[in-house]
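Risk register update: the risk that structure generation would not scale has been downgraded. Supporting records follow, first protein first.
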Amino acid sequence: MTSGLNHGLKRGLITVPGLILGIWTQLLIVGVGLGALVATSTAAFEIVRWGGVAYLVYLGIQQWRAPPRDWTAATESGYTPAKVLIARAWAVNAVNPKGTVFFLAVVPQFLNLEQALIPQYLLIGLTLSLTDLVIMTGYTALAARVLRALRSPAQQRLINHAFGGLFVAAGVLLAIFQR
């Protein structure tokens, strides 16, 4: 949603593949057994968790401090490059230990251990990718539509503070998350 607000629909949609790559990263981690290590090793879990906390708080502070933008500008010269948008979106999903815990809790229920696992993981990954594509595209479109109504710098600061606060709150919640 933040990308939709900050960059509009077209540029905001660039983040969706990054989010999906983050999901695939989490699924790969679980698939090769590192998810089990994070789930059973307190030290590994804490490293991933605090990395996620730091990143979410960093994103929140960056969003809070973001200056209002001139949405009437004809060019995108001041916008963040696509590869940076994709990398940020990937990081949001890839370093979230709750994603690993989610996959560890949910994925085994859909696996038939008597069948080859790779095709099953691929099907699960494709299903989650399609679901995330639809949902995140909807969120981005909604945010981009809201963007049209946010023309004044005061309104933009309010939105930046709201989303920045949500990122920091997510970081705080992750910090107090108990296994």
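Supporting record for the second protein:
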Amino acid sequence: MKTIVEAKRIKKAFGKKGNIYTALNGIDLSIREGEFVGIMGPSGAGKSTLLNVIATIDDPSSGEITIDGVNILSMNEEQLSSFRREKLGFIFQDYNLLDSLTLKENILLPLALAKVPIPELEERVQEVADKFGIGPILDKYPYHVSGGQKQRTAAARAIVSKPSLLLADEPTGALDSKSATDLLESLKGLSEQDKATILLVTHDAFAASYCNRILFIKDGEMFTELVKGTSSRKEFFNKVLDVLSTLGGGTIDTI
């Protein structure tokens, strides 16, 4: 199976000589096409720093990162901007929707920027809206819909351009349990049916239980890895809790 992300010996340090904080210290990770991978760890472990480095939002201090066969550390800012638009999708905790646009207009924005022909644009927007169960409300504005519907719109916008990698940073953090479950089920479906490759940063064991594999980070280093395999989601959830109790950090919800 094709490897989408290959990161080797990733280090990230902040500060100046004599007062340096090492956020990431020699992280290696590999993600294959269609995998739904979680990153967990205590606050300050380096989860978001790792996501930002892979997302090309921040540069590592050293190491190598290849996404979909491209060395992202060799590109200039203009090339990176184009790469983000074409290859990466983002889902954030606070939605980042434009209130002046309808849900449909928010979703189609990446396609419009890429000058996708209108018939194809319409078809792709409807397709992703149906996947996330928001087809009937596309003409509404963000301030007219629930938090869960906003987040599913944000997720639809993130995948409408068919990115090589979907990056999700605490996407269920502001959602109630039903909305969170709806979003996670949709992401799981994208991974299984459409071979979408997803990297999810979360502190929530319930959200993590939807992943195929979870990487646990502590003090900027890889602590351990859990693979779901043939486990049921409930069994996997309990394994996640076991690791979190050893590691420290994480939210324990019921399943």
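The beta strands are 3-16, 19-32, 36-40, 62-67, 70-71, 88-92, 165-169, 198-201, 213-218, 221-227. On this basis the risk owner (M.S.) recommends closing the item.
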